[in-house]
Amino acid sequence: MLRAAGVGLGDEVVVPAFGNVEVAEAVTRAGALPAFADVDPVTYCLDPDAVHTAITPRTAAVVAVHRFGRPADIGRLYELGQRHGLLVLEQGESEAPYGEVAQRRERAAYLDARLRGVRTPDGGDGHTYQQYVVRVPGNGRPDRDAFARALRGRGVDCRVPVKTPLHRLPEFRRFVSLPQTELAADETLALPVDASLTKRDMQRTVSACNALGGLLQPAF
Fold first, then answer.
1. Which of 42, 74, 87, 121 lies 20 to 30 A from 191 at CA?
2. Which Pfam families does its entry note (predicted)?
3. pLDDT above 60: residue 108
């Protein structure tokens, strides 16, 4: 789509650095340069204000990525695109059947009501909970990683959604300030809310998280 729109050598395309390496790779394959903008700390999608700041005379397009079951603020991004004459593209997530989404929402509501010591996700804008992403606040990555290891040791299949932001990878390294992206990479953890999980599984997740009190000191 970028090539078809004439985006190529000498152009910049604004993309998020919080995951989705395939988006940045697609920009590179089109001959353009990925320009990373910060994310909204609630939705983990591109922050329109950060996109506005990232626009330069070389900017040709913006790629909005919907994350974890929450949509990007596509209305404001399209407004920016119209104002600056930019192509705005979306990368969506695969849609699950209604029944599966309803079950995920039910499990998310169960966790919302019972988890302590972690920040639960905001459920606005019709969240479908492709992933149930919490924040383990504290001093950054050591706390979150120690928390994740302890959960796995208690039988909870959790995962770190984005281990390294794209602007820190060797092939895309950029010296840009993306504080929300880096904080999200340090603090976020995806807990299981699959439709196949039983009530006992959900109880195990809650018990394990709450027993840890939200934070662990890093092991030395």
1. 74
2. DegT_DnrJ_EryC1
3. yes
- What letter represents residue 157's amino acid? D
pLDDT tens string 23-66: 999 999 999 999 999 999 999 999 999 999 999 999 999 999 99
Name all domains of the chain by residue range, CATH numbers in brackets: 12-91 (3.40.640.10), 98-212 (3.90.1150.10)
Helix 199-212, helix 98-114: angle, nearest 10: 30
Average pLDDT on 142-163 reads 92
Averaged pLDDT, 71-91: 96
Non-local (6+) Cβ contacts of 113 within 8 A are none
Q: Is the pLDDT of residue 218 over 50?
A: no
C-alpha separations of 108 from 105, 132, 166 in Å: 5, 7, 28
Distance CA 125, CA 108 (A): 15
What backbone torsions phi and psi does residue 113 show, to the nearest 5 degrees?
A: -80, -15
Q: Look at residues 58, 14, 71, 56 and name the one whose alpha carbon lies nearest to residue 38.
A: 14
Longest dimension (CA), the chain: 55
3 state DSSP class of 75: helix
How many angstroms separate the CA atoms of 178 and 209, rounded? 29
